[in-house]
Write a structure and sequence with these properties.
- The chain has about 600 residues and is an alpha/beta fold.
- It is about 25% helix and about 25% strand.
- The chain has 14 helices and 30 strands.
- The strands form 7 sheets. Strands 4-3-5-2-6-7-1-12-10-11 form a 10-stranded mixed sheet, sandwiched between helices. It has a 6-stranded parallel sheet with strand order 13-18-17-14-16-15, with helices on both faces. It has a 5-stranded antiparallel sheet with strand order 28-27-26-29-30.
- Helix 1 packs across helix 2 and helix 2 packs across helix 3.
- The longest helix is centred in the N-terminal third of the chain and has 16 residues.
- The protein is globular.
- The protein starts with 8 loop residues before the first helix and ends in a 13-residue tail after the last strand.
- The model has no long low-confidence stretch (mean pLDDT about 90).
- The structure holds zinc ion (ZN) (2 copies).
- One zinc ion binds next to loops.
C-alpha cells in the first residue's frame, strides 16, 4: 500500500535512515530537522509502516494534538492518551500521548510495543528525564528489542550539551570524555539553509538596522554561557530609554507587517516592553501565564486580533502561527539552536508572505547559518572555525578566530571529534562495536609519570591511571614559597645563536624569565619538542624540530605557556641570584586569571 500522502525528498530520506538504522541496531537514534520541516509527516509515515504497536510521546498537549491530527488527516486511525485532551485511549496500534499522562498511568501500557517515537526529544535530557526513562524501562520489560527514536530541531542545549553521541557523518559530539547522553546515534540531519533555499521555509530577512542595541557582553556568564536574570534586569533597568527607542522602531517597521513576535530577556523586561506597545494589539506570555489564558491569547494572535506577541522563552517550541513575519530579538543568547528556534517562529510559509524581518537588538552576533559548536562561546568575538586534525584529517568545528585571509589563528578545540574508520581486516573498533573517537588532542595535560596526553580537565591519567597534578595546586604551592617566582605569561621571544635557543617568557607586567635549550643535545631537543613542537600552531601542525634554526624560522606559531614557575637558586657564593625555570603550564584551565584576562 502506498502512502496516502507524498513525502518531501528529505522526509523520505529521514524515514529511510530510520528503517536502515533499526534494521541493524536496537540503539536509540535521533533525527534532526529544522522547525517547520514537517516532522509530523515523518512520524505519520513511520507509524503507518509499523506493523506492531507504537507510541508517540511528547511533552505538550498541543503537539500530541497536532501529530495526531496529521495522522488522522491521511485517513489513518490512531488513539490519543492525554489527560489535558481528556482522552485516554491505549488500544490503537498507534497512540499519540503526552509523557506526563503515560507516566501517571503506566499500568495501561503493558502491551508489547515495537517503537517509541519522542517528539521534541531534547526534553529527554531535561526535567522529564525520569518520566521518559520510566516509560522506556517499562516498555523494554515487554520487549527488550524496543526501538527508541527521537525527533528535534535542537539537539544541543546550553545547559545540557548534545543529546546524542555519534553522528552519522563520522564524528562524535561533546568534548567531555564520557558523559551519558540520552540518545546514542544521530542518523539524519538537515540544515536550516537547505529548507530556506528549497523554498520550504520563508526567507529570513536579517536586517542590521537596530536603532539601538543592548550590550550584554560585560555581564558575567555561568559555565553554560548564560546570564543571571538579576544581572540582566539590572542592566536593562539602566537602559529604559534604549528599550523605548527599540520598541518605537519595532512599531514603525511593523506597519508593513502582519504578526510580530518579540523575545524579551526577562519577565520584568517583557512587562516593560509590553507597556510601550498599543494595549489592544498586544499580548504578553510568560512562564507564569495561566495555561487557559495563554491558549486564548495565542488564538487571538493567530486570528490576527492581536498584532504583537511578547514572550519570555516560552513560545520557542511547538508554537505555530504561520503569519508571523517579524521577529524582534531582545534577549541575549549564544546558542545557534535557540537563535534558530526564535527566528524559526517566523519562517513558516503563508499566503502572501514573502519574507520575515529579523532584527537582533541584543547584539548576539550569532550567524543563523553557522554550525552549532556545542560549547559556550569563549569570547564575544569568537566564531566557529574549521580545524583539520593532523591525525585523521577530520574537519572539526571549534570556537576560534581567523585572520583576514581565513587562516585559523586561535581555536579552543581540545580533542579531535572524528570517528575512526576501522581499517581492512581490523576488529570492529571500540567497545560495543561503536566507532572509536580519534585520540588526537589539540591541547592536553601531559602526565608527568608516563607522558600520556590527557584532557586539560582530567584528574587521572587515562593511561597509567595515576592522579595528574592539578595546575591550581602547583600555582598555589609556588605562590606560597618565598624562593619561587610565578609569572602570567603574555608571550615569548627567542634569542641565542647556533644550536642554542634561548626562550624568554614575558609576564604581563614586564617581568621576564628565560631558559635555554641546546639542540646539539638530544635530551634537550626532546624536551623542547615535547613542550613546544607538539603544541605548534595550536596543535594543528605538531613539529619535531631538529635544529634551533628551524625553530627560529617558524617562531610565529610557537605556543606560549599560560604560567611559568621558577625557583631562585640562591647560593651564598653567588652575588647574583640565579633563577631556574621549573614548570611551564600550557593550556591552563582553573581558577587563576591568565595574562590579559579580566
Ligand atoms: Zn582526528
Ligand atoms: Zn600517566
Amino acid at each position: 500500500m502506498n502512502a496516502p500522502f507524498t513525502l518531501r525528498p528529505y522526509q523520505q530520506e529521514a524515514v529511510d535512515a530510520t528503517l536502515r538504522h533499526f534494521r541493524q541496531s536496537d540503539e536509540s537514534a535521533v533525527i534532526v530537522l529544522p522547525t517547520g520541516a514537517g516532522k509530523s509527516l515523518v512520524i505519520a509515515e513511520l507509524a503507518r509502516l509499523a506493523r506492531r504497536k507504537i507510541l508517540v510521546l511528547t511533552h505538550v498537549k498541543e503537539l500530541v494534538e497536532q501529530n495526531h491530527a496529521k495522522y488522522q488527516s491521511y485517513g489513518l486511525g490512531g488513539g490519543i492518551f492525554s489527560a489535558g485532551l481528556k482522552r485516554k485511549e491505549s488500544r490503537h496500534q498507534v497512540t499519540f500521548a503526552s509523557v506526563q499522562s503515560v507516566a501517571a498511568n503506566l499500568d495501561q501500557f503493558r502491551d508489547e510495543y515495537s517503537l517509541v517515537i519522542i517528539d521534541e526529544c531534547h526534553r529527554v535530557s531535561g526535567e522529564e528525564t525520569s518520566q521518559y526513562q520510566r516509560i522506556i524501562e517499562l516498555l523494554k520489560q515487554q520487549n527488550d528489542a524496543l526501538k527508541v527514536l527521537g525527533l528535534t530541531a535542537t539537539p544541543y542545549r546550553l545547559a545540557m550539551g548534545w543529546i546524542y553521541r555519534y553522528h552519522y557523518r563520522g564524528f562524535v559530539r561533546g568534548s567531555g570524555e564520557e558523559q551519558d547522553k540520552p540518545f546514542v546515534h544521530c542518523i539524519y540531519e538537515l540544515p536550516l539553509r537547505y529548507m530556506v533555499n528549497r523554498g520550504y521555509l520563508t526567507r529570513p530577512e536579517l536586517v542590521n538596522a537596530a536603532v539601538a542595541q543592548y550590550d550584554f557582553s560585560a555581564l558575567a556568564q555561568d559555565r553554560f554561557g548564560e546570564y543571571a536574570e538579576r544581572d540582566v534586569n539590572q542592566l536593562l533597568g539602566k537602559h529604559k530609554r534604549v528599550t523605548r527607542a527599540i520598541i518605537e522602531q519595532v512599531m514603525e517597521l511593523a506597519a508593513e507587517r502582519k504578526g510580530v513576535m518579540i523575545f524579551a530577556a526577562t519577565v520584568d523586561h517583557a512587562r516593560e516592553v509590553t507597556g510601550y506597545l498599543p494595549e489592544h494589539q498586544t499580548a504578553l506570555v510568560t512562564g507564569a501565564t495561566d495555561l487557559k489564558e495563554r491558549d486564548v491569547l495565542v488564538q487571538r494572535f493567530k486570528q490576527r486580533e492581536l498584532k504583537y506577541l511578547v514572550n519570555v522563552s516560552v513560545l520557542t517550541t511547538g508554537f505555530d502561527a504561520p503569519h508571523v513575519d517579524f521577529i524582534a530579538i531582545l534577549r541575549p543568547t549564544q546558542s545557534v539552536s535557540l537563535y534558530q528556534q526564535m527566528v524559526g517562529r517566523g519562517l513558516r510559509l503563508d499566503e502572501g508572505k514573502t519574507d520575515c524581518l529579523v532584527i537582533d537588538y541584543a547584539g548576539n552576533n550569532v550567524n543563523l547559518h553557522h554550525p552549532e559548536v556545542g560549547e559556550p562561546k569563549p569570547k564575544h568575538d569568537s566564531e566557529p572555525v574549521q580545524v583539520f586534525c593532523p591525525g585523521c584529517g577530520f574537519a572539526n568545528i571549534f570556537w576560534g578566530k581567523t585572520d583576514g585571509d581565513g587562516h585559523v589563528i586561535e581555536h579552543y578545540g581540545r580533542r579531535c571529534q572524528g570517528l575512526l574508520e576501522p581499517g581492512e581486516g581490523d576488529e570492529p573498533a571500540g567497545h560495543n562495536g561503536h566507532p572509536q573517537q580519534c585520540d588526537y588532542r589539540f591541547r592536553f595535560k601531559a602526565c608527568p609519570r608516563c607522558g600520556g596526553e590527557n584532557d586539560i580537565a582530567a584528574r587521572n591519567c587515562g593511561q597509567c591511571h595515576k592522579a595528574i597534578i592539578d595546575p591550581d595546586d602547583q600555582l598555589r604551592d609556588a605562590l606560597r614559597l618565598k624562593d619561587a617566582l610565578v609569572i602570567r605569561c603574555a608571550g615569548i621571544s627567542l634569542d641565542g645563536s647556533g644550536s642554542k635557543l634561548k626562550i624568554t617568557y614575558h609576564g604581563e607586567e614586564g617581568e621576564e624569565l628565560s631558559e635555554s635549550f641546546d639542540f646539539s643535545k638530544p635530551a634537550q631537543r626532546h624536551v623542547f619538542n615535547k613542550l613546544f613542537g607538539r603544541r605548534f600552531a595550536s596543535g594543528q601542525a605538531p613539529q619535531v624540530f631538529s635544529s634551533a634554526d628551524e625553530v627560529r624560522v617558524m617562531q610565529a606559531l610557537l605556543p606560549a605557556p599560560d604560567f611559568v614557575i621558577a625557583r631562585k637558586q640562591n647560593h651564598y657564593w653567588q652575588v647574583q641570584v640565579q633563577v631556574q625555570v621549573q614548570e611551564r603550564i600550557f593550556d591552563y584551565q582553573g581558577s587563576y586569571r591568565r595574562a590579559n584576562e579580566v
